[in-house]
Write a structure and sequence with these properties.
The complex is a heterodimer of chains A (308) and B (226). With 308 residues, chain A is of the alpha+beta class. Chain A has ten helices and 16 strands. In chain B, strand 3 and strand 4 form a beta hairpin. The chains are: A alpha+beta (308), B alpha/beta (226). Strand 8 of chain A pairs antiparallel with strand 3 of chain B, so a sheet runs across the interface.
Chain lengths: 308, 226
């Protein structure tokens, strides 16, 4: 057995998988890729043997003992979005689903080091739920109200003067500034609670946590939500950033508390302290690495190779 | 305040409510729709504190100044007023309501007792695959595990309710293993099923039928609500 055998799951050309693969190969790891687009040439078969999951992955005319994978890095695309699945018949769709289901289940129960297990990646499906966990670890939480009461929303605005609103769930939404004069829209919140947050000054920092290591990137943007500058013709600059030790510790603790080993944590540095907005359990780190040259993929590769 | 949170069609939860009422236990039956269409739903969160206040149209008020016992059977947050919305909008609202409810219940469970608690992706206890249950069952000490599909009829079942197991004459070793499985699953209300001879674990379920556990279950819940 090659003690550096690593399984990558996803689309090999996608940025984070491609960079991880490159970094692993540079370190001499034996990398096996489960390419979702080649699902038709791949099989997974496993079962419990003496209480432990055991089986084989067949792909590219080779077979691998699943137990021999020291680590697995997953970035699955939804099966139905795979181009080869979109234009195929029902039988192939069923076979693709069945293959993925078998692999997902193995990933949940294997003793291999999985970055990250799916069952642990859902805490950001409710941002305020996640915020209540995050704040236990020494980072500030922006003053937030979730309400269906327009009067409460207006009182919150009057207290904080500058307020944004955003989705409560993990569904991506563009963060926008609240306009208290838009009373017609405000009245609609009685049908579904909305999350309002004090608009903070300062600047954004994305911290990637890999096990017990961190890489921080400062983000300076002309927009409230830097992820959407291309739509607004704004500008965003990314640069390496040094964070204080206590912030590093907090980020590492949050990562561990959520049961995750690789996360992207969104912080805001302000004059009043460091606030945490969200923990992303499947960070698209290649965007930050490409813009700053920071070696996130190298740290990820080291983590996958050296995992206990 | 004692609350049974359940969907309107949850006959077992309604049975439990009636049994407790007959014993003069002060308990409210509350549907997720009543929460989601509440006259007021407000939750504040910041660095040092959090608070909530929900006032339903029927006048029930939940707030963080009071400790609650919640018997939580909510599986899905759906508000009927969005039923006729366009599909994309309906899905978005569904995700938002689910997320809001998860946050509220998490805030409540940190100060109250809740069976079953939210666990990040589920509003009440875990929903594991048979493989996840199999792994956990072995870790809990069960030696013979063959989890079958949900539709299979269990021959014998026990119910973990926090730190107790029904029936109370269950073998001590099984009690220990059942409690261990319940802890591993972070699911204090957990039904475990076995083969006819009682030796093989065949299933685990965080949303059990209740009525068959009868008086023993009612007595335990009554104790918790007092």
């Amino acid at each position: 057995m090659n003690d550096k055998m690593i399984l990558l799951c996803g689309i090999p050309s996608e940025g984070p998988i491609a960079k991880a693969n490159e970094a692993l190969l540079k370190k001499g790891a034996h990398v096996v890729v489960f390419n979702q687009r080649q699902y038709a040439d791949t099989q997974v078969e496993w079962s419990f043997v003496n209480g432990k999951p055991s089986g084989l992955l067949h792909t590219h005319n080779c077979s691998y003992q699943l137990d021999n994978f020291k680590s697995v890095y997953t970035r699955f695309m939804s099966e139905m979005d795979i181009p080869e699945v979109k234009n195929t018949d029902e039988k192939n769709i069923k076979s693709c689903r069945s293959l993925h289901e078998s692999l997902y289940q193995w990933l949940e129960v294997t003793d291999s080091n999985v970055v990250n297990r799916h069952s642990l990646m859902f805490s950001n499906s409710s941002k305020p739920y996640q915020a209540q966990i995050i704040r236990l670890f020494g980072l500030k939480t922006p003053p937030t109200v979730i309400t269906n009461n327009p009067e409460v929303a207006l009182a919150f605005y009057n207290k904080h003067k500058s307020v944004i609103y955003k989705s409560i769930s993990g569904v991506r939404s563009i963060v926008k500034e609240f306009d208290p004069s838009d009373l017609e829209r405000l009245a609609k919140i009685k049908y579904c609670p909305v999350q309002f947050q004090k608009k903070l000054g300062g600047f954004d920092v994305r911290v990637h946590v890999i096990g017990k290591k961190t890489v921080a990137t400062k983000i300076v943007s002309t927009e409230v939500d830097y992820r959407y500058v291309s739509k607004t013709k704004g500008e965003t600059i990314l640069e390496p950033f040094e964070i204080p030790d206590y912030v590093k510790r907090s980020c590492i603790q949050i990562n561990a508390a959520l049961g995750l080993s690789f996360t992207g944590i969104d912080l805001r540095f302000t004059d009043e302290g460091v606030y945490c907005f969200e923990v992303n359990p499947m960070p698209g780190y290649s965007y930050y690495e490409s813009n700053t040259g920071q070696g996130i993929s190298t740290l990820l590769a080291e983590y996958l190779i050296n995992a206990e | 305040m004692n609350i049974i949170l359940c969907h309107p069609q949850d006959r077992d939860a309604i049975w439990l409510h009636m049994e407790l009422k007959q014993k003069q236990v002060p308990v409210h039956l509350l549907a997720p729709e009543q929460l989601l269409m509440a006259d007021e739903w407000t939750q504040y969160i910041d660095t040092d504190s959090d608070s909530y206040r929900v006032k339903t149209k029927s006048g029930i008020t939940l707030d963080n100044t009071e400790r609650h016992f919640l018997f939580n059977r909510i599986q899905l947050a759906q508000s009927p007023i969005w039923n006729k919305a366009e599909e994309t909008e309906k899905n978005y609202v569904q995700a938002e309501l689910n997320a809001a409810l998860m946050s509220l219940l998490y805030s409540m469970q940190r100060k109250s007792t809740i069976l079953n608690p939210v666990v990040g992706y589920s509003l009440s206890g875990v929903y594991w695959s048979k493989d996840q249950w199999t792994k956990a069952a072995y870790e809990a000490g069960f030696e013979d595990v063959a989890i079958t599909e949900e539709s299979a009829i269990p021959y014998h079942s026990i119910l973990v309710v926090d730190d107790k197991v029904i029936p109370n004459n269950t073998d001590e070793e099984v009690i220990e293993q059942a409690l261990s499985l319940s802890k591993l699953a972070q699911t204090p209300l957990l039904e475990i099923t076995f083969s006819r001879d009682g030796k093989q674990l065949t299933g685990a379920n965080s949303f059990p039928a209740l009525k068959k556990y009868g008086k023993e279950l009612v007595d335990i819940i009554q104790q918790k609500m007092l």
